[in-house]
Amino acid sequence: MWRVSKLCAETAKATVESANIIVGWLEKASDYFKPFKPEIKSMVVNYRNRRSEINLLLNIPEGIRRAIHYVEIPAYQNFMVQDMMDESFSRVGDLWWYEDGKWKLDPARLPKCENYLLMLRGTVPDETLNQLVRIQPAVNRDQTEEDDRFWLDCMLRNVGLLEKIWKELSIDEVNVGVRVGIERCFSTTIPKEFKRRLEATRRWVAAGRGKDKEEVQRAWRNVRQVTQTSKVSVEEIIDTIYKLTSGEAFGAYLNLEQPYRLGEIRREEIYTTPFPARMAVEATTELGLQKPTATGYLTFKKKAYTEKIKETLDKLD
Fold this sequence. Notes:
single chain; four-stranded antiparallel β-sheet; Immunoglobulin-like; 2 domains; seven-stranded mixed β-sheet; alpha+beta
C-alpha cells in the first residue's frame, strides 16, 4: 500500500513538474503583463506535432499606454509572440519585435481600445507530453469470425492538479496506434501458385543483398522456374497486394467509435511472409479538462476484407 501511495505521489509530482515546464514561460510573461491585468490562462497543444498555443487577454487602457514606455518579455522554452488582436479583431501583432533575446512592444503605438488578445506559440518537449497524457496500448479484446475489435483508451493525468494550473487546457490530435494483423487474411486466400512466385522473388532479392554468389544463381533459377508457366507476373501480384493494403483501401474496412476518428493508415513494410503481416492504424482524439478521457472500439471487418482479397486475386488468375 505504501509503495502504491508513493508511486501515485511521484506520478503527481512529475505531472506538476511537466505542467510547470509549460507554464514557466507564461508565469514569467505574466509578471511583465501585470499592469495589463492578464485574465485568461488557456492552452492548446497539438499532440502530433508538439506545437502549443497560449492565449492571454490583456487590458491596456490609454492611461497605462501613456505611463509605460515599452514592454519586454524574455524568450523562454521556444515560445514566441505569434500575434495580437484588438477588440475589433484587427491584427496588431506586427507591433511586437524580437531583439536581444526578448520580445518587445511599445504600448503607445497600440490602437485606441482597451482589450487585446495575445497569442503565444512554442514547442512542448516529448517528455512533458508523456507526463500530461497517458495512452494505453490498444488491446484486441474481442475476436469473432467476422471482426476484430481493439479497445482504445487515453486520458489526461491528474486532472485535479491540472485544473488548479489552467482555466482551459486542450490537447488535440492525441494519436493511439493500433497494429491490425492481416497475415491470415492473405494466407488463407492467396493461391499457392502466387505464394510460390512471391516467395521465390523474395528469396532472390534477399540473395542479391548478400555475398553468396551461388545463392544468387540458385535463387534466380528458382524465380525463372516458378514463373515460366504463369500468365500473371510477379509485378502484377505485388501491385495488387499494395493496392489492397493502401490506406484508402484498408480504411474502408475499419469502423471507429466516437470520440475517435481515423488518422494515418499504412502497411508495415517488414514482412515475415510474402505479403504484409500488419497494418499500422492511428486513431486520433482530443482531450481537455471538460473531457479528460477518451475510450472506444476500433473494429476491423476482417471477413469482408478477406473476401475482397479473394475477389481481387481471382480476377488475376
